[in-house]
Target: Delta-aminolevulinic acid dehydratase
Amino acid sequence: MFPTDRPRRLRTDGVRPLVSETDLSASDLIAPVFVDATTDERVAIESMPGHERVPVREAVDRVEEVLATGVEAVMVFGIPESKDAVGSRAYAADGVVQRTVRDIVAETDAYVITDVCLCEYTAHGHCGVLEDHAEADPRLTVRNDETLDLLSETAVSHAQAGADMVAPSSMTDGMVGAIREGLDDAGFSEMPIMSYAVKYESAFYGPFRDAADGAPAFGDRRHYQMDPANRREALREARLDVEEGADVLMVKPGLPYLDIVRDVREDFDVPVAAYNVSGEYAMLHAAADRGWLDLEETAHESLLSMKRAGADLILTYFAEDIAGSL
Ligand code: PBG
Model:
């Protein structure tokens, strides 16, 4: 009898869930939240439908909304009251993230992760301290080693505010090692680091840069974020971060880089995170708005694919919308 092998036998409604290889659950998801020190009102983020920047005094409410959906972890991004050349509001004890984290930790049970970067805090919008003449000469951008001290200081200030985990995202060489040392010296040797280890210079971050007001004022991030053409280099970045003490490795963006998620999964034994970034979110919303795609189904399929590729945890703007259906 041909065909003898009939995979369709295992696709009936009854057996499908039994043989399903991958599970997506609310406990895999982290919801990004934007807290804005420049506003007293919630401000809708146009390119990310359903997301808002909230004032510090509403951060606890915002996190409660996330928790009510079954998602237990948040990633806090801050928009500071002012910006300068060295991003000093990133590591101020009374900075927007520090104040927010203190409130969230005091009043909720959320697991609080903070993004550690300078681009929202520098007037020029780059992820660190700039070389002189950077504006005139785009080949000169971020001073790597000077930036390390500021990132370390930022991470320690987040730890002192009560954050549960820090997530450095600046693609500064040595950032994980510098932050690990800073945390250990300050008495936070138990605090885990989730490194944005493999972060590409991606056009899919567009909506986020509106949301967090972190677009570079000139030039681009090619000198520190990775070339989308590279795969071997991803493993090198991941290896360096593990050697420097990363507890979780992140790959970013998610959907266009599932091969990299798989590579990192296979080569390392630490948990792997995928960041389903703002552009991936905006894309599905835009198509769904026109009636071209089903939003919930495509969002679910995207996240499931990241799990299947090997991600253990996923940062996603869909977290709250999808959690209820899992
Ligand atoms: C900060 C940071 C960015 C994102 C997360 N952290 C912006 C960037 O690197 O340009 C992007 C997240 C998203 O697009 O959802 N460096």
Remarks:
- The longest strand covers residues 29-36.
- The longest helix spans residues 144-161.
